[in-house]
Write a structure and sequence with these properties.
The chain has about 425 residues and is α/β, with parallel strands linked by helices. The protein contains 17 helices and 14 strands. It has a 6-stranded parallel sheet with strand order 1-11-10-9-12-13, with helices on both faces. The protein has a 5-stranded parallel sheet with strand order 6-5-4-7-8, sandwiched between helices. It has a 3-stranded antiparallel sheet with strand order 2-3-14, with no helix packed on it.
């Protein structure tokens, strides 16, 4: 991996380089995505089936697009009891964590007859997009469905691309069934996003679409926002490790590569105050790459977006980490909790040398659907909050309104809205 001393120029070049990975930087795909969405909006199932055959090589129709109970039973037989046990243990951790995020309606009444409050209501129907194609991600199924289930969503519609044989990866089906999906459809890409957003004869329109996908999926979600809600426009995966001279170079190198293997656009960055650690991590990365199955992808990722930055002080390392606002942030230092208190921007923070990023991907419980491309400055991980909406509650008695009606009337007149003022005034004439 390239080693650079952290300077003003290095910082600017790095931030500009990372921004190139954003889905917003690929306008050449937007026209294609818009055409797909428009065809699905107008032609519904007909367009959905045609695009599934074109892009996935699978012939799907109205009778076969929905996954059957028989297909799910076959998936359980294929997955086997060992993986099923792991899925259930991971699901338990995810459910327990997200249960703590639940919000409840509240009401505050006063002696004069005023009642103010907030009514919390789960969304009725949500769509969960699960990637297919190059790899299957049952962990993503659990992370997207469980917070919706905890929130109380009635219908959880999952879509995922089929293989050329028209089937869904068994592990994905098992995870969906265990997590609580109410229906699973064989559709992927921008066309599946369009089906969820507009509705077709086979797939019902949803209130919100969540889940990661490729550039077509990301841009499709961005395009349909407003017709439905979305979680975020997800970019490529990324990890940043803050480490000092106490860090284990083998651990750091392994953790960096755990994200670099996702795809060629993934970013892996080490920021350290120790030049010796920087050198040893770079050497260990080269050793590990020779042993790993996705070495070609890893090399391209590191060549494009892999960095080892040497900072003069820990404060400087923390400052650049907050600027980058990484999806995953690991802290492997002598005093990791002290560093953690100074972190403002990160999707998920992993503290200490035994809290490696894959722990969060699969098992710990916090959600692994995280803000990318610097959006951790203002976005949060997927949570129960993403699957609820809130309504304000206002109830005034005549006594309560009488005490303030002149203030309201005067305020409305100041804005030139005399009908507003009259709406209050008529109650006291």
């Amino acid at each position: 991996m390239r080693i650079r001393h952290l300077s003003h120029d290095t910082r600017q070049n790095l931030l500009e380089d990372l921004l190139k990975r954003s889905p917003n930087q690929y306008p050449e795909y937007e026209k294609s995505v818009a055409e797909i969405l428009e065809h699905v909006r107008k032609e519904k199932d007909q367009a959905l089936f045609a695009y599934t055959e074109k892009f996935d090589g699978a012939k799907i129709n109205a009778e076969t697009i929905k996954v059957t109970e028989e297909e799910i039973e076959e998936a359980y037989a294929f997955a086997g009891p060992e993986l099923l046990g792991i899925i259930r243990r991971a699901l338990h951790n995810i459910e327990v964590y997200h249960e703590k995020q639940k919000q409840y309606s509240w009401f505050d009444s006063k002696p004069d007859g005023t009642i103010l409050g907030q009514k919390v209501t789960p969304l009725q129907r949500v769509g969960v997009y699960v990637p297919g194609g190059k790899a299957a991600y049952p962990s993503s199924v659990l992370m997207n469905i469980m917070p919706a289930k905890v929130a109380g969503v009635e219908e959880i519609i999952m879509v995922t691309p089929p293989g050329k044989d028209g089937k869904i990866t068994p592990n994905t089906l098992v995870a969906a069934k265990e997590a609580g999906a109410t229906a699973i459809y064989k559709a992927g890409g921008a066309q599946a996003v369009g089906a969820l957003a507009y509705g077709t004869e086979s797939i019902p329109k949803v209130d919100k679409i969540v889940g990661p996908g490729n550039i077509y999926v990301a841009l499709a979600k961005k395009a349909v926002y407003g017709h439905v809600s979305i979680d975020a426009v997800a970019g490529p995966s990324e990890i940043l490790v803050i480490a000092d001279e106490t860090a284990n170079p083998g651990y750091v190198a392994a953790d960096l590569l755990s994200q670099a293997e996702h795809d060629e656009l993934a970013s892996a960055i080490l920021v350290t105050t120790c030049e010796e650690l920087a050198r040893r991590v770079s050497e260990q990365v080269d050793i590990f790459i020779e042993e790993l199955s996705r070495s070609e992808i890893i090399r391209k990722s590191l060549d494009n977006y892999g960095y080892i930055l040497v900072a003069d002080t820990m404060d400087e390392a923390i400052e650049i980490a907050n600027e980058i606002a990484s999806e995953h942030l690991e802290i492997q230092t002598k005093n990791p909790y002290d560093v953690m208190t100074k972190i403002r921007n990160a999707g998920a923070i992993f503290i200490g040398e035994h809290s490696s990023e894959p722990l969060g991907d699969y098992f710990a419980g916090p959600n692994h659907v995280l803000p990318t491309n610097g959006t951790a400055r203002f976005f949060s991980p997927l949570s129960v909050d993403d699957f609820i909406k809130k309504s304000s509650i206002i109830a005034y008695s005549r006594e309560a309104l009488e005490a303030v009606h002149e203030d309201i009337e005067q305020f409305a007149k100041a804005e030139g809205l005399t009908a507003h003022a009259n709406s209050i005034k008529v109650r006291f004439e």
